[in-house]
Amino acid sequence: MNVDAQSTVTLDGQFAREFPELAIHWQAEQAPDPQLAALNEPLATELGFDPEFLRSAEGLQLLIGTAPFNGSTPVAQGYAGHQFGSYSPRLGDGRALLLGELVNASGDLCDMHLKGSGRTPFARGGDGLAALGPMLREYLLSEAMHALGIPTTRSLAVVATGRPVRRETMLPGAVLTRVASSHLRVGSFQYARAMNDLDLLRRLADHAIARHYPAVAEAENRYLALFDAVVSAQASLVARWMLVGFIHGVMNTDNMTISGETIDYGPCAFMDVFDPGTVYSSIDETGRYAYGNQPAVAQWNLTRLAEALLPLLHADQERAVALAQESLGSFPRRYSAAWLSGMKAKLGLAADVDDKTATSLTDGLLTLLQQDRVDYTSFFRSLGTAARGNAGAAHSMFSDTTAFEIWLKRWRTLKPDAELMDRSNPVNIPRNHLVEEALAAATDGELGPFEQLLDAVTTPFEERHGLERYAAPAPETFGPYQTFCGT
Question: What does each C-alpha distance from 7 to 2, 4, 103 come to in angstroms?
């Protein structure tokens, strides 16, 4: 089989063509011995690829960017960003490449993108490479998030390169091939604004509207409508993170997408015991991106987007600021509405249950969970059993059973729907101890644990015989837990 077998899959170079100011043409580094570590066959088919071809030597060269797709124009994208609150005017794809755009089976345009493909002019002293473990982590976490129904970039493949990567020790290198609605970020607009090029800023905004929010194109103030749409998308996204206990770990403005998809799974993790102050990232020394801080950080990031868009919102700066502030002011309300709606579902409550009642019930429960350091995912799943009349498992998680029993009685008066709860509360998430176990095995050349964990977390709401260990909380001997960005 040869590359011509993939002639039906063509990549466009729209971003490279339309935004030369934000794109540096570049090529991926050659890999000494590419070997497939993971391939997302359903996604490959959805994108128009023959999975068997992608497993071939020629297919692997395409997946790591060392052989060109039809129409491919690989570029490193430029963007700025606030990293832990400090502004960096020039970040960009230091170890990544946008191969181009393609249309999936649903007719939607999406990006094909590499991570770990070698140094680019944006590398800032880094080696441009990636280790196998962190790339498999992104594959695992992003596919788990997709299965949970949370907007996210997707992982198509991880290819081991045969090139060792030096971190604390020498590790096997790899390239991740991922797919996204786009890789436009808040930082993309910050970069354009920093160039003081109003035409570029306008073209970028028009591109974002056409690609992600075409309905706002006819609005009286299309750029304000664009900003409002991003505010709404991010409020919904972060609410979904919070509902499943996901902690992004590095919510810099260059890691917030305009599309409202989760991106850049570096030091991310799912929360074990419920604690709003939970931080797993080794580089988040101040807790800026702790679980409970994520909504406020999202609004802070959106404020930076507003600052970048101000020249487009109104010719009068004061009026532009007032318009941006009005839209930003809607974020807490939108977030709270999305979160409370999701929490009602997790508790099995009908949508028409009074918000004040639901909020009081939820606040009381979260206080109890935090006091007793209860495993977040396990508790909500066990509560579905309690809705069916057996509260033993839920009771066993609390030392203060009297307080929990009082809460339980209040909850039961609202006649919770157990089936709704089963559809809303996952059994299987990428539990941290299992993720580390799987990645350690993969680094040693054994992919079985990774594949088994992937199978469990991509059917998150199903209780399956033989997968009980994937639903169990971490053993007491596990921790304290830290995650790392992988660079």
Answer: 10, 5, 14
What number of residues does the chain have? 487
Residue 484 inside a domain? The answer is no
Q: Which residues contact 155 (CB under 8 A, 6 or more apart)?
A: 38, 40, 43, 138, 139, 142, 143, 176, 177, 178, 179
Taking the C-alpha atoms of residue 389 and residue 408, their distance in angstroms, rounded to an integer, is 11
480: cis peptide before it, omega within 30°? Answer: yes
The conformation of residue 123, written as its DSSP 8-state character, comes to -
75, 131: one domain: yes
In DSSP terms, 24 is beta-bridged to 76
Task: Show the domain range for 120.
Answer: 3-180
Least Cα distance to 78 among 67, 65, 69, 88 occurs for: 88
Q: Which of 283, 318, 338 is the C-terminal boundary of a domain? A: 338
Catalytic residue status for 254? yes
190 and 325 both lie in a single domain: yes
Given 137, 163, 180, the domain boundary residue is: 180
End-to-end CA distance of the chain: 35
State the catalytic residue, choosing from 111, 254, 372, 422.
254
Q: What whole-number distance in Å separates Cα of residue 13 and Cα of residue 24?
A: 12
Assess contact for 284 and 267: CB atoms under 8 A: yes
DSSP state of 473: P
> Do 117 and 192 fall into the same domain?
no
pLDDT tens for the chain, 487 residues: list them: 344 444 468 999 999 999 999 999 999 999 999 999 999 999 999 999 999 999 999 999 999 999 988 888 899 999 999 999 999 999 999 999 999 999 999 999 999 999 999 999 999 888 999 999 999 999 999 999 999 999 999 999 999 999 999 988 999 999 999 999 999 999 999 999 999 999 999 999 999 999 999 999 999 999 999 999 999 999 999 999 999 999 999 999 999 999 999 999 999 999 999 999 999 999 999 999 999 999 999 999 999 999 999 999 999 999 999 999 999 999 999 999 999 999 999 999 999 999 999 999 999 999 999 999 999 999 999 999 999 999 999 999 999 899 999 999 999 999 999 999 999 999 999 999 999 999 999 999 999 999 999 999 999 999 999 999 999 999 999 989 998 876 5
